[in-house]
Amino acid sequence: MSSPLHDLEMQARPLAVKEKAALARILIAELDMTVDADAEQLWVDEAQRRYDAYQRGELETRPGDEVMARVRNRLK
Questions:
Q1: Rounded to an integer, what distance in angstroms lies between the CA atom of residue 30 and that of residue 49?
Q2: Up-side HSE of residue 11: CA atoms within 13 Å toward CB?
Q3: For the segment 8-32, what is each residue's pLDDT rounded down to a tens digit?
């Protein structure tokens, strides 16, 4: 006996790419509803706090290429 999830997966596999993308957007949108409603504002506030600290010279900065290289090395 197969699970409902397996049955849905088997029904979705033959869909066209655009149909799969539409289905994925619908499912992700439903998941996003469970996220804290204040999360976006909290991120905006954090970004502003960091930008203000940068403007005051309180943050150490590094070139983007260097940061990305470090991240890639850590993910290896």
A1: 30
A2: 8
A3: 999 999 999 999 999 999 998 888 7
How far apart, in whole angstroms, are the C-alpha atoms of residue 52 and residue 18? 42
Kindly list the distances between the CA atom of residue 40 and the CA atoms of 17, 36, 46, 76, in Å, as whole numbers in the listed order: 30, 8, 10, 31
Give CA 18 to chain center in angstroms: 21
Phi-psi region of 61 (alpha: psi -120 to 50; beta: other; left: phi over 0): beta
- pTM assigned to the model: 0.46
The per-type count for the chain, helices as H runs and strands as E runs, is 4, 0
What token pair was written down for 4? 């409902």
Please state the φ and ψ torsions of residue 58, each to the nearest 5 degrees: -90, -5
> What is the pLDDT averaged over residues 22-46?
86
